């Protein structure tokens, strides 16, 4: 599966590339630790592109970056078979090689589909070593690529944000109330007053009203920000689902669910990170399931994985 990732100015090169990697055990030379830092996102173990430990308790894999860095993100590529083996693995960052003395947990991998690369934001955290640890008995740890990124703004007080790719997209919706076009939600303004004509609005009382953003190409989507209406009716957005994918079946509403909006206070902006760290897709949908629903959005922002290449 091809993954197109935005080449962004905010991350520098992959620090893990060709660095020294070790692991708790080695199943065979075919599964050497260094295969996860060879610069290849090839998901085939048989082609010698992935690591593999023995079956053991708490297997781990570690890369030595050579120096301490402020780490912004880690990407992990899962193998193209046995995709559930990575479920529950933890990504740790620190200056200790003792797995019981690691200071900063970047993320927990809930699930990465087979052959896919997921992006995990690390807050950021400081450390020389990046460790992937899979807790439990009778576990096998297998990784096909681990990439480690540092933000350019580590030395830059301006701390420029990642680009909002929604601004270059095209929006549509299931219906439109007079003057409240779908494009109002990607105009770059978080003005939350519908009466000022800054928000999208479907017809009232619809069944399953939806709003869809076409990003024009496929991205690895890391987070989505949604601004709710501020002058009334904040509860209308409760229960809305954010869906991400490449299909237009059922107007895109059958794509995998990224997150569910429980509640956003009037006029506020909430950030949603897709389950598992990231999702791949060209289309971002917001849909409210149910009868007699009305969908109003004052801004939708989409931020993508700033990795250094496309596959």
From TrEMBL:
GO terms for molecular function: fucose binding; metal ion binding. InterPro entries: BG_Antigen-Binding_Lectin (IPR051941), FTP1 (IPR006585), Galactose-bd-like_sf (IPR008979). One of its GO terms (biological process) is regulation of cellular defense response. Keywords: Calcium, Disulfide bond, Lectin, Metal-binding, Secreted, Signal. Its main location: secreted. One of its GO terms (cellular component) is extracellular region. It holds the Pfam family F5_F8_type_C_2. Acts as a defensive agent. Recognizes blood group fucosylated oligosaccharides including A, B, H and Lewis B-type antigens. Does not recognize Lewis A antigen and has low affinity for monovalent haptens. Belongs to the fucolectin family. Homotrimer. This is Si:ch211-215k15.4. The lineage of its organism: Eukaryota, Metazoa, Chordata, Craniata, Vertebrata.
């Amino acid at each position: 599966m091809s993954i197109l990732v935005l080449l962004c100015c905010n991350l520098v090169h992959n620090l893990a590339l060709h660095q020294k990697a070790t692991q708790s055990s080695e199943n065979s030379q075919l599964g050497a630790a260094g295969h996860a830092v060879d610069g290849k996102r090839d998901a085939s173990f048989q082609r010698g592109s992935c690591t593999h430990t023995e079956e053991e308790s708490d297997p781990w894999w570690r890369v030595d970056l050579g120096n301490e860095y402020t780490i912004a993100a880690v990407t992990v590529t899962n193998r193209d078979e046995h995709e559930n083996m990575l479920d529950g693995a933890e990504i740790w960052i620190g200056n200790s090689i003792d797995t019981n003395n690691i200071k900063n947990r970047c993320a927990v991998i809930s699930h990465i589909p087979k052959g896919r690369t997921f992006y995990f934001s690390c807050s950021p955290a400081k450390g020389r070593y990046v460790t992937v640890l899979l807790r439990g008995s009778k576990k096998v740890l297998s990784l096909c690529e681990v990439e480690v990124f540092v933000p350019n703004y580590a030395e830059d007080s301006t701390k420029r944000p990642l680009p909002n790719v929604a601004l270059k997209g095209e929006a549509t919706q299931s219906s439109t109330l007079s003057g409240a076009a779908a494009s109002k939600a990607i105009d770059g303004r978080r003005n939350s007053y519908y009466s000022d004509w800054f928000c999208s609005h479907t017809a009232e009382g619809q069944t399953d009203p939806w709003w869809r953003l076409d990003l024009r190409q496929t991205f690895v989507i890391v987070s989505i920000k949604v601004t709710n209406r501020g002058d009334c009716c904040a509860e209308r957005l409760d229960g809305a689902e954010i869906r991400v994918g490449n299909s237009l079946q059922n107007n895109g509403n059958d794509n995998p669910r990224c997150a569910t909006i429980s509640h956003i206070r009037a006029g506020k902006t909430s950030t949603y990170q897709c389950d598992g760290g990231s999702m791949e897709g060209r289309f971002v949908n917001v849909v409210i399931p149910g009868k007699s629903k009305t969908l109003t959005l004052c801004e939708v922002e989409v931020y993508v994985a700033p990795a250094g290449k496309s596959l």
